């Protein structure tokens, strides 16, 4: 797709492109790098936090695909960074169907990288905003690739701290939860002030100055997103502590450096 077809707003920092920068990607621009640099000045572990979030996505996807889940809805996909979610899922379950959703035009411009499925599986992309869940669920691309009558893995990783209470974050999640079949899974990470309150408050201020609202949530507020569903062990924990591989979480990484919670829950 030609970048000229969409308005990339390159003069403004965008959270997806800032995240790409934290991960060492190249799909970011001067405004994104400037804002990311300001975040790193007040929270020097931004790259560590981003990598921990990405690693959690890999681990949780492998686990759920290994449990037989074959449908994934990834909202707030971000800029493609290999391995993408469908590549992880289809390594375990080649028949997996994955639908990606984001509202950033630059993700749309690079969506072709998300559509390279296995022959047995399927992937598609929906340009939509999480705060309009009906538009996501009614999208023809979603309906053609996911069966809402069967279990679906809903991934909302590093997304909902960009949806403040004023935009009804809890109601948005409840809309999706209601639409999903029993046996579906909710996978989520979320920034929190619980481990480094001063630094995360400064992060919020930097994003606000760049035009992006951020609302960090504490453990109790994060837990509300999962009400009525059954948390998988180990429940709610710092991102890098959720089912770490090998000998356990990296002892050099403190909870304050991640400053995010992670959890996975099942619909009864």
Could you please describe the fold and organization of this structure?
The chain is an alpha/beta fold. The protein has a single domain, classed as Vaccinia Virus protein VP39 (Rossmann fold, 3-Layer(aba) Sandwich). Helices cover 37% and strands 15% of the residues. Helix 4 (85-92) links the parallel strand 1 (71-75) and strand 2. Helix 1 (15-22) crosses helix 2 and helix 2 packs antiparallel against helix 9 (197-209). The longest helix has 21 residues, at 46-66. The model has no long low-confidence stretch (mean pLDDT 92).
Tell me roughly what share of residues is in helical segments: 25-40%
CATH first level: which class?
A: Alpha Beta
Please state the second-level CATH architecture: 3-Layer(aba) Sandwich
Helical segment count: 11
CATH superfamily, please?
Answer: Vaccinia Virus protein VP39
General form: globular
Q: Unreliable runs, pLDDT <50, ≥5 residues?
A: none
Let me know the average pLDDT. 92
* CATH fold descriptor: Rossmann fold
Q: Total domains, how many? A: 1
Q: Work out the radius of gyration.
A: 17 Å
> Total strand count, please?
8
Structural classification: alpha/beta
The ordered H/E elements are: HHHEHEHEHHEHEHHEEHE
Largest sheet: 8 strands, mixed
The rounded distance between the terminal residues' Cα atoms is: 41 Å
Strand residues, percent: 5-15%
What would you say about this model in short?
With 268 residues, the protein is an alpha/beta fold.
Describe this protein with a few key phrases:
eight-stranded mixed beta sheet, Rossmann fold, 11 helices, 268 residues, 37% helix, alpha/beta
């Amino acid at each position: 797709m030609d970048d000229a077809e969409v308005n990339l707003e390159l003069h403004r920092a965008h959270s997806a492109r800032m995240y790409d920068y934290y991960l060492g990607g190249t799909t970011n621009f001067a405004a994104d790098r400037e804002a990311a640099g300001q975040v790193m000045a007040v929270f020097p572990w931004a790259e560590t936090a981003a990598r921990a979030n990405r690693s959690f996505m890999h681990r949780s996807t492998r686990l759920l695909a290994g449990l037989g889940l074959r449908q994934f809805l990834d909202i707030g996909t971000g800029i493609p960074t290999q391995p993408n979610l469908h590549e992880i899922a289809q390594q375990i379950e080649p028949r997996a169907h994955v639908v990606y959703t984001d509202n950033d035009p630059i993700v749309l411009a690079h969506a072709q990288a998300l559509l390279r499925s296995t022959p047995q599986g399927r992937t598609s992309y929906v340009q939509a905003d999480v705060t309009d869940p009906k538009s996501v669920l009614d999208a023809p691309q979603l309906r053609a690739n996911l069966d809402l009558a069967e279990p679906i893995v809903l991934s909302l990783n590093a997304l909902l701290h960009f949806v403040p209470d004023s935009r009804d974050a809890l109601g948005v999640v409840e809309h999706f939860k209601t639409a999903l079949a029993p046996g579906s899974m909710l996978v989520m990470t979320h920034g929190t002030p619980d481990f480094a309150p001063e630094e995360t408050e400064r992060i919020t201020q930097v994003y606000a100055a760049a035009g992006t609202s951020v609302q960090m949530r504490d453990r109790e507020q994060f837990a509300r997103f999962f009400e009525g569903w059954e948390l998988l062990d180990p429940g709610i924990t710092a991102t890098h502590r959720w089912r770490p591989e090998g000998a356990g979480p990296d002892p050099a990484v403190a909870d304050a450096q991640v400053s995010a919670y992670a959890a996975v829950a099942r619909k009864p």
